[in-house]
Design brief:
Elements lengths: L1 H31 L6 E4 L5 E5 L17 E3 L5 H4 L4 H6 L4 E6 L18 E4 L5 E8 L2 E8 L19 E6 L8 E5 L4 E3 L4 E8 L5 E7 L2 E8 L5 E6 L8 E9 L2 E12 L18 E5 L17 E3 L5 H4 L4 H5 L5 E2 L20 E2 L4 E3 L10 E3 L19 E6 L20 E3 L4 E3 L13
């Protein structure tokens, strides 16, 4: 009796094991079976299958033929479709469509009302249109389930008996998160002739990332970021007025896209706000700007351009560059914030005489004057309490001088310090790496 019980128990255990194995295989089969119905063909990869059956409307409505976790293959899954060989694509029975248009050797969405994107892509030896040398979503070779002016006949990208046996279903992949983008530059206003560097910093994602630079919505540059290089750089050499505008960095991956903007302005070299300098343009740091102003002569900076101010004692060296010939031909008298004294040059005060330059200015032999041109001054109103102000007929305008810039030391203040020749943008604590280097401090190659 005991041996029979042992044998019966062994048989029960074996049957349980077999049932469990069969159930596991069934679950695994369902997991890799991307069709709700019969799998007509499983390609040499487990992520694409051919599912038979009709659908209603646009091809992207045919997901009812695919199992949960799968969807109708489209141009977005070109990385999966490229793994299908041309030989396999033309030998399977039937014709299986997917949501893509390959017009002109491209791989893009199938659009029902656009004649340039209405050829419905497919795979199988029963497909009507095949070109072994064309380019398509599968790479080498092009196959279409339906072709040529379907949009004009109002039947593009849709099912019709005889054109397709079913659809291709692709396993859904976990999409990456959309990238985060920030456009960074040292400044947004540049003097004409300077070089500008715009950096598009991409974060919160992994490559590859497609980058598009646009200026005023017009494409300027396209590149792809891979691996650990998450910076795109746009260089503008010798900036000019036509470079002014809104620059956009658009970053796109399979998870979505994001963008950031910066407005770049090119500023003229001349020092007058209206661009009407009465001095030759060879004078880079000084301009004679006509016009009226209110208040003290230093308030005449409203007549000066960007990065210029009314000339004062700190600009004497620049004023001395003005030649006698150009001074003689400078029509009028242009004031600046200086008063001549016998001992030293001072800023103009209420009860002093305001200095000026131009052939219409007043002149004294003594004292010597602050500039090499001598004691030239603006004729003031004798009744005026403040002789450093504008009065009608006294001055033609003001002398504008470029604001002296502090010497910039080439010291990286980024933490950690940029390595391997990386350039530090101190404001954002960001290292802009040379080509071939990456990392927060450009420490990796």
């Amino acid at each position: 009796m005991a041996p029979k019980l042992i044998a019966l128990s062994a048989i029960i255990l074996i049957c349980s094991y077999v049932n469990h194995a069969v159930a596991s295989l069934a679950i695994q089969s369902r997991e890799f079976n991307g069709c709700k119905g019969i799998v007509e063909h499983k390609f040499n990869q487990t992520n694409v299958v051919a599912c038979s059956g009709p659908w209603i409307g646009h091809i992207n409505n045919a997901s009812n033929l695919c199992r949960n976790g799968w969807n109708v293959c489209s141009w977005k899954e070109s990385s999966m479709l490229e793994k299908i060989s041309w030989q396999e694509a033309i030998t399977i029975n039937g014709c299986y469509a997917y949501d893509a248009s390959q017009d002109g050797g491209t791989c893009k969405p199938c659009v029902s009302d656009h004649w340039g994107s209405d050829d419905l892509a497919g795979i199988g030896k029963a497909c009507q249109h095949r070109n072994p040398i064309g380019k398509s979503c599968i790479g080498r070779g092009k196959i279409d389930a339906s072709c040529c002016v379907d949009s004009l006949l109002r039947r593009a990208c849709t099912y019709r008996p005889g054109i397709a046996s079913g659809v291709l279903c692709c396993r859904k992949e976990a999409l990456p998160t959309p990238p985060q983008v920030q456009v960074i530059a040292d400044k947004s206003t540049f003097i004409i002739g300077e070089n500008a560097l715009l950096v598009c910093q991409v974060s919160n994602t992994k490559g590859p990332i497609n980058i598009a630079w646009l200026k005023n919505e017009n494409l300027v540059k396209v590149e792809q970021l891979k691996n650990n290089n998450m910076q795109s750089k746009l260089s503008i050499n010798k900036i000019n007025h036509h470079h002014s505008g809104e620059y956009t960095c658009l970053a796109t991956n399979n998870g979505g896209s994001s963008q950031d903007h910066i407005y770049i302005r090119a500023r003229g070299r001349h020092g007058c706000a209206n661009g009407d300098s009465r001095l030759p343009r060879k004078y880079y740091n000084i301009s004679a700007c006509p016009g009226r102003w209110k208040g003290h002569v230093r308030d005449g900076r409203s007549l000066c351009g960007d990065n210029f101010q009314v000339c004062s004692i700190e600009n004497i060296k620049d004023l001395n560059v003005l030649s006698w010939k150009d001074l003689f031909f400078l029509d009028g008298c242009f004031a600046y914030d200086v008063t001549h004294t016998s001992k030293k040059c001072l800023r103009c005060k209420d009860n002093t005489i305001m200095a000026g330059l131009g052939r219409s200015c007043q002149y004294k032999l003594k004292p010597k004057g602050c500039t090499r041109h001598g004691y030239l001054y603006v004729k003031s109103n004798k009744m005026a309490k403040n002789k450093c102000m504008y009065y009608k007929g006294s001055s033609t305008g003001v002398m504008c001088c470029r604001i002296p810039t502090k010497e910039v030391t080439n010291v990286s203040r980024c933490n950690p310090t940029c390595q391997n020749g990386g350039y530090c943008i101190n404001k954002h604590n960001l290292c802009v790496c040379k080509f071939g280097y990456h990392g927060k401090a450009c420490q990796f190659k």
